[in-house]
């Protein structure tokens, strides 16, 4: 439970509140206009509005005959996509051979599909059709001026196609925020087997795809020794061209964990200074005066992964103008003990009507997360079968 005093100090912030605070702290990057071909994966900076009615003209939904009045009908020409019928208005008793997607001539009552039509001697016959049958009317999908997607919507394949259908050549978007990562730890090895006093760096390989999944552009990743403190200070200064600096393995209170000392020296504004979650408790988010946002992820790899989803994901969403949205939920079928006042983050897999905890989730062990479909955020007092929020790990 977060008390008013905790909110003031930003310590032990409840897990859901930490996500919210990280999102709210972000000032969105400025909008830019980019050609459609470069907009995929970015976020709309403005509503996407239909400039014309959609469809923009009455169009045939079938290959067949546009007919006027009761049959039989005399065939008076043809209408093809991009090549409308040249007459002015179809008179009763007339028909025009028409293709799907062609302009429906004025005066048309309905389109008779070719499968229902009988032709001969320049005439066509067929069953009586209700007015408007097989005609897609102007503006039937959306009248001009309709807002089709709100600012903050991610630009995916369908949105790009929709924008093109509306006649857009460029879109107003926000660029992906840039991230620089600093991995600290004198014990870390980047190749070969772990052994006494020697830990393989798990976060160097984990961070680039994670940053991309969370909506950022990783501009660089540096390995920095624990001591002296000046090494971390220099690395953070060198990373200040990014929107966000992520530092791993320096969040705790030991002599080799200098991040909090550095943030104090730089008069940083605290946004989150530890989260009431397990793992990921020492995670932090602060902003030194005049510098980029700084996120501290715990050195334990699974703790770092959960903390990135808690703080980095929402911060990047806010920077790119995406709403935080509510998380999907599913019943968690496995009993999970959760200490009072904490949220446990556990890897889960889909299992029929709900999700099942996988295990393999001690703070330094990524086995469960490597195989999981999602991370479940489990509150204190959870009963098996009750729904919990999920952070999806696969799409
Ligand atoms: N007195 C206290 N000590 C600790 C506390 C505390 O509240 N009081 N919190 C513990 C928790 S919880 C965590 S999590 C860690 C966080 O520590 P740091 O972020 O400062 O990280 P380190 O101490 O450097 O490393 C912790 C652990 O993780 C290993 N590590 C570090 N980086 C990597 C990497 N890139 N790849 C793989 N493994 C890594 C490191 O060897 C340590 O074993 O603090 C606790 N202590
Ligand atoms: O909470 Mo730490 O983040 O246990 O590993």
Structure, explained:
The protein is an alpha/beta fold. The chain has four domains: 4-29 and 175-319, Molybdenum Cofactor Biosythetic Enzyme, Chain A, CATH 3.40.980; 31-53 and 141-174, Molybdopterin biosynthesis moea protein, domain 2, CATH 3.90.105.10; 59-136, Molybdopterin biosynthesis moea protein, domain 3 (Molybdopterin biosynthesis moeA protein, domain 3, Beta Complex), CATH 2.170.190.11; 329-392, Beta-clip. The protein has helices at residues 4-9, 15-25, 157-165, 203-213, 229-238, 259-265, 301-319, 367-371; strands at 11-13, 31-35, 43-44, 48-49, 59-60, 64-67, 73-79, 94-98, 110-113, 118-120, 123-125, 135-136, 147-149, 170-174, 178-184, 188-189, 199-200, 217-224, 244-248, 269-275, 277-278, 284-287, 293-297, 329-331, 343-351, 354-357, 374-379, 387-392. β22 (284-287) and β23 form a beta hairpin. The protein is elongated. The mean pLDDT is 96. The site of molybdate ion has 9 residues, from loops.
- Principal-axes shape call: elongated
Mean pLDDT: 96
Q: Which distinct ligands sit in these coordinates?
A: ligand LQZAQKY5, molybdate ion
Total individual domains: 4
Instruction: Characterize the biggest β-sheet.
Output: 7 strands, mixed
Distance between the amino and carboxyl termini: 32 Å
Computed over alpha carbons, the radius of gyration is 30 Å
Structural class determined from secondary elements: alpha/beta
- What's the CATH H-level homologous superfamily of the largest domain? MoaB/Mog-like domain
The proportion of residues forming helix, as a percent range, comes to 10-25%
User: Strand order of the main beta sheet, please?
Assistant: 1-20-22-23-19-15-18
Detail the poorly predicted runs: none
CATH C-level of the largest domain? Alpha Beta
What is the CATH topology descriptor of the largest domain? Answer: Molybdenum Cofactor Biosythetic Enzyme, Chain A
For the record, the CATH architecture of the largest domain stands as 3-Layer(aba) Sandwich
How many individual helices?
Answer: 8
Strand content: 25-35%
In total, the number of strands is 28
Catalytic activity: adenylyl-molybdopterin + molybdate = Mo-molybdopterin + AMP + H(+)
Function: Catalyzes the insertion of molybdate into adenylated molybdopterin with the concomitant release of AMP.
Keywords: Magnesium, Metal-binding, Molybdenum, Molybdenum cofactor biosynthesis, Transferase
Enzyme class: transferase
């Amino acid at each position: 439970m977060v008390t008013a005093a905790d909110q003031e100090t930003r310590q032990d912030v409840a897990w859901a509140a930490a996500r919210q605070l990280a999102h709210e702290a972000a000032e969105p990057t400025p909008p830019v206009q980019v050609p459609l071909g470069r907009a995929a994966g970015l976020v709309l900076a403005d509503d996407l509005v239909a400039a014309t009615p959609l469809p923009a003209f009455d169009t045939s939904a079938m290959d067949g005959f546009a007919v006027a009045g009761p049959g039989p009908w005399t065939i008076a020409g043809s209408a093809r996509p991009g090549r409308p019928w040249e007459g002015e208005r179809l008179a009763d008793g007339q028909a025009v051979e028409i293709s799907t997607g062609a302009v429906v001539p004025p005066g048309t009552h309905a389109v008779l599909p070719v499968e229902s039509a009988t032709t001969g001697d320049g005439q066509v016959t067929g069953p009586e059709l209700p007015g408007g049958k097989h005609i897609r009317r102007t503006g039937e999908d959306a009248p001009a001026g309709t807002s089709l997607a709100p600012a903050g919507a991610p630009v995916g394949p369908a949105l790009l196609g929709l924008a093109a259908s509306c006649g857009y050549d460029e879109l107003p978007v926000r660029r992906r925020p840039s991230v620089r990562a600093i991995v600290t730890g004198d014990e870390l090895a980047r190749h070969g087997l772990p052994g006494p006093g020697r830990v393989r760096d798990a976060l160097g390989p984990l961070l680039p795809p994670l940053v991309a999944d969370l909506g950022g552009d990783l501009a660089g990743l540096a390995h920095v020794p624990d001591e002296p403190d000046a090494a971390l200070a220099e690395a953070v200064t060198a990373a200040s061209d990014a929107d966000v600096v992520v530092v791993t393995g320096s969040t705790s209170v030991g002599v080799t964990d200098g991040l909090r000392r550095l943030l104090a020296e730089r008069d940083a504004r605290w946004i989150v200074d530890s989260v009431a979650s397990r793992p990921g408790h020492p995670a932090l988010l602060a902003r030194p005066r005049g510098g980029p946002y700084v996120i501290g992820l715990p050195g334990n790899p699974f703790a770092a992964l959960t903390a990135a989803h808690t703080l980095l994901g929402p911060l990047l969403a806010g920077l790119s103008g995406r709403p935080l949205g509510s998380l999907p939920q599913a019943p968690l079928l496995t009993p999970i003990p959760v200490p009072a006042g904490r949220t446990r983050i556990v890897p889960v897999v889909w299992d029929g009507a709900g999700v099942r905890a996988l295990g393999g989730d001690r703070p330094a062990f990524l086995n469960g997360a490597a195989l999981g479909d999602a991370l479940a955020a489990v509150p204190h007092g959870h009963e098996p079968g009750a729904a919990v929020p999920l952070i999806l790990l696969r799409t």
